[in-house]
Amino acid sequence: MTRARVAVRQLVPAKNQSDVFSGPRSIGIVLVVFIATLTVRVWGVSTHFFLLGDQIRDWSIVLGPFRKLPLVGPATHVGGYTIGPTFYWIMWLIRVTVGPWFQNLPHAGGIGQAILQSGADALLLVAVWHRTRSIWIALTTVALLVTASFDLSLSAVIWNPVIGSTLAKTATALVLLDWPQQSRARVAVTAAVAWGAVHAYTGTIFVASSIFAALLVEPWSRGDRNAAWRNARLIVAVVVVLQLPYVLHQLSNRFADSAMGAVTGSIGRIILGTDRPQFVRSATGYAGAFTFIEASPWRGSLFSWLLAACAVIVAIRHRRDPVLLTAIVLPQMAAIVGYGFWLGNLDSYYYLSLMPAAVLTILLGVSAFMSPRVVRIAGMAFLIATLAILPARLRFAATMNRMPQYGVLVAASRNIVRLKRPLRRIECEFPLPPTADADFVYQILGGRIDHESSWIAIVSSNGGVTYRNVATHR
Predict the structure, then answer these.
(1) How far is the CA of 112 from the CAs of 90, 98, 118, 246, in angstroms?
(2) Looking at the chain, which terminus has fewer C-beta neighbours within 10 angstroms, N or C?
(3) What is the pTM of this model?
(4) Can you say whether residue 133 is alpha, beta or left, with left for phi > 0 and alpha for psi between -120 and 50 degrees?
C-alpha cells in the first residue's frame, strides 16, 4: 500500500465509527448558530443601513428585470469591473425573494446578504466539526469570524466583496467537508461556487485557485490520476461556461472594454522592470489586515506573529492532509505572493475572504499537539474567551459602516409618499455622507421626482417633514 493510501486511511474515519454530526442535537446546534449569527448581523439594519453610492447603484440595477442585468460585475475603485455577473445574479434573487417583505427597500438586500453569510457560517461549522471532530473548535471558529468587528460592520451592507467572501467561505467549507469527493457533479458545483466568488470580487482569486488545487490534490494524493485529470477538465469547463457572459459583454463592446486594466498594468510594470515586486509590503499588508479585521479593537504585532507561527505548526502537524493544507494555508501564501505584484494600496477588505483560513490556522495550530481530551477542554476555553470579548467587538463594530440617518429617511419618505405629490427634491437638515441620495428611498416607495415641481420636502433630524414652495420664494 502506498504512503498516500496509508495517509488517507489515517485521516478518514472508519465507516463503522459514528459521525460527529448526526441526530437532532447536531441539527439543533447548527440551527441555533444560524439564527444567532443572523440576528447579530441584521440587528438594527433598518435604522442604520449604510446607503452610499455603491449600494444605490447596485440596488438600482437589481430592482430591474433579470434580462437587464449587466453581463459583468460592479465597477472597481481602481478602474474596470469584476469579470462576471454572479454578484448581480445573487442580489437580484435576494431582491425578488427577500425584497417584497421590506417594500424592496435597500436594507432588504443587506438582510438577504446576511442570510447567505449565516448559511455559509452554518456550513463552515459542520465542515470544521467534521474535520477536527471538535464541536468546540468549530463553534469558536464561527464565533471569531462572525463577531470580528470590521466583518460584522459590513455583514448587512450591499457590497460585492462581502458576497465574494461568502462564496469563498462556502467553497472552503465544501472542501473541508469532503463533499466534492462524492461525485463529478459535486466537483463542478464546488468549482462553480469558487469561481462565482471571483465574479463577485476579484480578490477572492487566491481562495478560488486554492479550492481548485484542493480538488486536484485529493484524488492525486490517493493515487487516482484519472480522477485528478477528470477534475481538472471539469474545473476548466466550469470556468469557461461561467465566463460566457463576460465574452458576450466584450463582443458587444468589440473588446474595447478592459476589466482588469489596473491589475495587468501593475504586473506589466514589474515585467518590464520599471518596478519590483513588493513581497515584504504584501506580507506586512496581510499582517495588518488580519490584525485589524480579527483582533480589533485591540492592536499589536503579536497577532500576526501568532498566525505565522501557527501556519508553520499546521503545515508540520497536518503534512499528511494535503486537502486541509491546500484549503487553509495555501490561499494565505498565495495572497502574499499575489499581492506582491500589486503596486496600488492594500486595503483591509482585500483580505476578507482569507479570514476563515486564518482563524482556522490559529485554532488548529494552538491545538495541534493536544490530546482529544485536552482539545475538548481547550476548545471550551477558546469559546468562553471569544464570548468574553464579544461586547468590545460589538461596540467597535457599531462605530464603522453605519448610516444612522437611514431610518429617519425611510420614515420621512413614507410620510411624503402619502401626499401623492411630485417633488423637485428632498433636502435634509442633517448631513448625509457625500455619495448618499436623499431621494432614493422615496422613489423606491413610489414617490416621484419631477424637476419641474415647485415643492421641496425638508426632513428634520427627528424625521419630521416640512414643505417649501420654491415658486413662492422666487
Answers:
(1) 9, 6, 10, 25
(2) C
(3) 0.92
(4) left
